[in-house]
């Protein structure tokens, strides 16, 4: 079998999945053409990297469908100078796109293993305007706030107030809100001491675990008999 032409597949993805569905922001389209999604998925999944679907990345986490990623980014209307807080680094793919679109990115991931792996991928792409931290992203980073943009890549039961207060004036946040059965993307825009919330489209994301998200359920361990 001949090697896959990832560049051609990436261009088809932008044309057929994004432009054909009315994603039109030139900066977003350029970033989606630039960042190699296949480098952020497990080797055995790379042949599916530019399909119109989410893919597993391990630890019960996923890399989101390209269209959903592009839609979220377009809704945030980047100018190129934003300070961004990303909650849920995951594979690092969205992080790399944010590095293309914004001034500086701080990304918080709760899984050390995913954070380290994402950091390696970003280093290979020479992303120099990013920091990755390990911790409870549902709390945000109040000591580093305010942020011009906050992107949450996991579903919260409701919009965490603590994140709303970390937005700068005219700052934007996008996140999925709901339970396992029904979630919607919601966009929050801050105007002084008030916030405008807009419900966008129905989506499916993994749950946001943490103090201001869902409570992590303890895993049940089967007891093994000792010989």
* Strand count: 9
CATH architecture: 3-Layer(aba) Sandwich
Q: What is the class in the CATH system?
A: Alpha Beta
Strand content: 25-35%
The total tally of domains equals 1
**Overall 3D form:** globular
Biggest beta-sheet profile = 7 strands, mixed
What class would the helix/strand composition place it in? alpha/beta
What can you see in these coordinates?
- With 227 residues, the protein is of the alpha/beta class.
- It has a single domain (6-203), classed as Rossmann fold.
- 26% of the residues lie in helices and 26% in strands.
- It has 6 helices and 9 strands.
- The strands form 2 sheets. A 7-stranded mixed sheet has the order 5-4-3-6-7-8-9. It has a two-stranded antiparallel ribbon with strand order 1-2.
- It is globular, with a radius of gyration of 18 Å.
- Residues 220-227 have low confidence and may be disordered.
Task: Please give a handful of descriptors for the protein shown.
globular; disordered C terminus; two-stranded antiparallel sheet; 9 strands; seven-stranded mixed β-sheet
Short description:
By secondary structure, this protein is of the alpha/beta class.
Layout of helices and strands:
Elements: H1 6-18, H2 26-34, E1 55-58, E2 61-63, H3 66-75, E3 83-87, H4 93-101, E4 104-109, H5 112-124, E5 130-134, E6 147-152, H6 161-164, E7 167-178, E8 183-191, E9 194-203
Parallel strand pairs: 3-4, 3-6, 4-5, 6-7
Antiparallel strand pairs: 1-2, 7-8, 8-9
Helix pairs in contact: 1-2
